[in-house]
Every structure is written in C-alpha cells, then in structure tokens.
Automatic annotation (TrEMBL):
Pfam families: P5CR_dimer. This is Pyrroline-5-carboxylate reductase 3. Homodecamer; composed of 5 homodimers. Keywords: Amino-acid biosynthesis, NADP, Oxidoreductase, Proline biosynthesis. The keyword Disulfide bond does not apply. PANTHER family: PYRROLINE-5-CARBOXYLATE REDUCTASE, PYRROLINE-5-CARBOXYLATE REDUCTASE 3. Pathway: Amino-acid biosynthesis; L-proline biosynthesis; L-proline from L-glutamate 5-semialdehyde: step 1/1. One of its GO terms (molecular function) is pyrroline-5-carboxylate reductase activity. It is an enzyme of class 1 (oxidoreductase). It catalyses: L-proline + NAD(+) = (S)-1-pyrroline-5-carboxylate + NADH + 2 H(+); L-proline + NADP(+) = (S)-1-pyrroline-5-carboxylate + NADPH + 2 H(+).
C-alpha cells in the first residue's frame, strides 16, 4: 500500500539501492556484511547502528562509504533523537543525505563516534527512564484520587510540554525548574522529596550503567 518493495535476499537490496540501512543485532551484523560484500560498490552508502565503524568496515571493500547510526524508539512517531558518525570513506555529501532523510523522524545530529554509546545510555535507553517517571507521576495522582487514564494523559502532556520548552527556549533545565518554584510553594516542597530520594544521582547512574553496557556490547 505504501509502494515499498520487499525481498528475502540481501544481495538484491544492494543491486536495487545505493543507500542501505543495516538494522541488525550486533552479533548478526558480521554475517550480513560478509554476505553482501560481493555486491558492495563505490556508489553504495552503508548505514548501521550496532558495531563500531572500524571493526565492521574491515568486512567491506576498502573505501566503502560507511556511517554509523543510533536511533531511538520515538522515531516511530517522528519524534526521535538520533546521532550518527561517519567513517573515513564517507564525506559531507553522504552525511548531508543521511541527516536530511532522518530529520523527518526527529532530531538528528552528527557526532564523533565516541558519543554513540553515550547516546545509547542517554536517549536510546533513556526513553525507558522517562516512561518509568511518567508511570510514577500518574500513580502519584491516582494515590491522591485521580482516575488512572486521566492521570496518564496529564503526565504525558506534562513531559511533552516540559521537553518542548527546553528545546524552544534553549534554557538550561535548572533555570526552567527554578521558574516553576515559588517561595514556600508546592513545587519546592515536592522537589525536596525528590532530592531526598537522590533522583538526580540515580538517573546519572542509570545513564552511566547503560553507556558502559553499550561499550561492552560493542566489544563483543
């Protein structure tokens, strides 16, 4: 219905396309690269997310234009956060092409490859941290007497609005947080409880743990 062509043959994809996305688990990618190697030419641009560029490029012909991409789940609603890094064979034209295509799915930034595992801990896994926080917000409201469905919708809109203000104002989150607080008001009392629970340190630890795990997986 969308006009997309499908095939069970990876080599056929290379024969019919110039820009190829390799979306596999890390342990699957080497086998796929070896399979498609005979069909890869100088006109191809290959993009993948699981493995380091240097390691994976060794399985393709020398000079292949390679970019490494890391998306996240909200790409499915065109609100993703993606970063990519280019290999030595990829130039400005390939980077511009990839960014222009992916920008329709959300924020897309070119970064040094060393940032990709950090992005995994921050945004790839970070979506789950936000869902956990949203769930806790809604459950707090349910505890105080609000129906669950309404509480979930308000929690989601609260997160959406807060994120939009960060992006559109460019203000540091600490500045925006301070704008919500009034002396002796509800917010500062609530923030005191969050600080008692070490919310900031816990979230920082979560990003660190996910980043380190991503680095370990890239080595395997």
């Amino acid at each position: 219905e969308s006009g997309c062509r499908t095939t069970h043959c990876n080599l056929e994809v290379l024969q019919e396309s110039t820009l190829v996305f390799l979306a596999t688990k890390p342990h699957i990618l080497p086998g796929v690269l070896q399979e498609i190697r005979p069909a890869v030419g100088p006109h191809h641009v290959a993009s993948w997310h699981p493995s380091p560029i240097l390691v994976s490029s060794q399985l393709l012909p020398a000079g292949t234009k390679v970019l490494r991409l890391m998306p996240n789940l909200p790409c499915v609603v065109q609100a993703g956060a993606m970063v990519f890094a280019r290999g030595s064979g990829a130039g400005d034209g390939e980077a511009t092409l990839l960014k222009s295509l992916l920008s329709s799915c959300g924020l897309c930034e070119e970064v040094p490859e060393s940032y990709i595992n950090i992005h995994t801990g921050l945004s790839g896994s970070g979506v789950a941290y936000v869902y956990l926080f949203a769930e806790a917000l809604a459950e707090g409201a349910v505890k105080m007497g609000m129906p669950g469905g309404l509480a979930s919708r308000i929690a989601a809109q609260t997160l959406l609005g807060a994120a939009k203000m960060m992006l559109e104002t460019g203000e540091h989150p600490a500045k925006l947080r301070g704008d919500v607080c009034t002396p002796g008001g509800t917010t500062i009392h609530a923030l005191h409880q969050l600080e008692k629970g070490a919310l900031r340190a816990t979230v920082m630890n979560a990003v660190e743990a996910a980043t380190n795990r991503a680095r370990d997986m890239a080595k395997d």
